[in-house]
Structures are given as C-alpha cells and as structure tokens.
Amino acid sequence: MSEAENKPKAVAATDAPKTEETKTVTEQATEAAAATASAVKDNVFSMFGGGPKKEKAEEKDEGADEPSGSSKAAVAKTGDEEEEVDDKEPDVHFEPVVHLTEKVDTKTHEESEEQTFKMRAKLFKFDRDSREWKERGTGEVRLLKHKENGRTRLVMRRDKTLKVCANHYVVPDMKLSPNVGSDRSWVWNASADVSEGEPEAQTLAIRFGNSENANLFKEAFIKAQQENEALFSKTD
Fold first, then answer.
1. How far apart are CA 224 and CA 152, in angstroms?
2. Hey, which residues does 121 pair with through a beta bridge?
3. Which of 29, 65, 71, 116 is deepest in the core (most CB within 10 A)?
4. Average model confidence (pLDDT) for the chain?
C-alpha cells in the first residue's frame, strides 16, 4: 500500500464541522421564531385586555366595589342622623274641622207601650190589582199594649232595615182564618193598616216556622181582641 492510500482523506475531517454548524443555525432559527410568536401573542392579549394586565384590572375593579373605611363611616353617620331626625319629629295635633252635633234620640212611638207577644214570621199582602200574594217582609211580629189606654196594636218590622210592614189595632171584627193547605199560616183583613202612612184596607197573611208558633200567635191575637173590645165599648 502506498503512502497516498494510508493518508486520511481531508473531506472526512471537514464534514463533521459542517453538520454541527447546520444544527446550530436550525436551533437558532427555532428559538427566534418561538420568541417572535410569544411577543406577538403578548401584544395581541394586551390589545384586547388579556393577559396579566386584565387580572390586575379585575383586582382593581373588585377593590373599587368595596367601600373604604371612610365611606362606611359616612354611611353609618348618615343613618344615625336620619334616626335622630325621626326621633325628633314633633307630635302635631290637628283639631277636627267638622264638629259632630249632639246625639239625637229617634222615637218609634213604642216607648209608651209594653210588649205582650213577639214571634219571628213572614208577612204577605194580597195585591188586588195583580190578584196575587206579595211578600211584605220577614221579621218579628209583636203585639204592643199601651201603658195608659191599654189598647193593643200589631206591629211588624223588616229585618235589618226595621221598616214597618204592618201596623194596625187588633179590633174585634178581625177574624183569623187558616190559610189553605197550611197549618202554620193565618189570613185576616185589616180595615185601617197605617204601615204605608195613610190608613188603608189590607188583606194580610202571616206564616210561622211551625204550627205551634202559629197557634201561640192566634191565642195572643184573640186575647188582644177581647181586651180591645171592652176598651172600645167603654169609649163609645
């Protein structure tokens, strides 16, 4: 073998450094690209309120919502002042503009009478024009005897309104007749009923809750007739 063949080739010595230089350039390019991308990303987040700056802003906003110590003290002071103002409001008394008049006693002309009978019932009046019975009202029918002259009259007032629906003397010529088909109802004629103001002839019917109450009314009615008959005969 000749000396030329045993001598290392120069090309092999120069290939290794070129490979190392190529890797170094590639790494540098990669690092530069990564740095550039990071810078661009930070700039984009900064432009749109992102990144660390946004977190600081949020922390600042949260701190702004909470009132400071001086603000709290001012609010508490204001509340105390309002309470003091409410406590110091004067007690003002106003006199009424309209003065009530004295109490007026309403007279029913029953003050000089004593009650001898009272029973709850329903009263009807026969209408001659329509030829039918019409209800006059529901209430308490009473027999009232005058304390001085002793005469007895029949008075009935409606419930709630207390309006008079029957008012006449129990005279001897009146006759109680049982209503057809009922054992708790009576019919009679009053020649001078003054419940409407002027004396007027009326045909009345009264109905009770049961036959027992109806019979009690008949007994009291006949008794009043007998007493009035004696009084009227003395007057004549």
1. 6
2. 139
3. 116
4. 76
Question: How many Cα neighbours within 13 Å face the side chain of 11?
Answer: 0
By the 8 A CB rule, do 201 and 209 touch?
no
Phi, psi of 151 (to 5 degrees): -80, 145
The letter for the amino acid at 175 is K
Closest CA to 141 of 164, 172, 160: 164
Asked if 140 contacts 118 with a C-beta cutoff of 8 angstroms, the reply is yes
Q: Domain coordinates of the chain in residue numbers?
A: 7-60, 113-235
**Architecture of the domain whose range is 113-235:** Roll (2.30)
The amino acid sitting at 162 is L
Cα–Cα distance, 226 to 3 (Å, whole number): 181
Environment class of 177 (CB within 10 Å of its CB; exposed 0-12, middle 13-18, buried 19+): exposed
C-beta separation of 187 from 110 below 8 A: no
Q: Which tokens go with 41?
A: 């990303």
pTM above 0.70, yes or no: no
SS3 category, 182? coil
Residues 104/91, Cβ–Cβ less than 8 Å? no
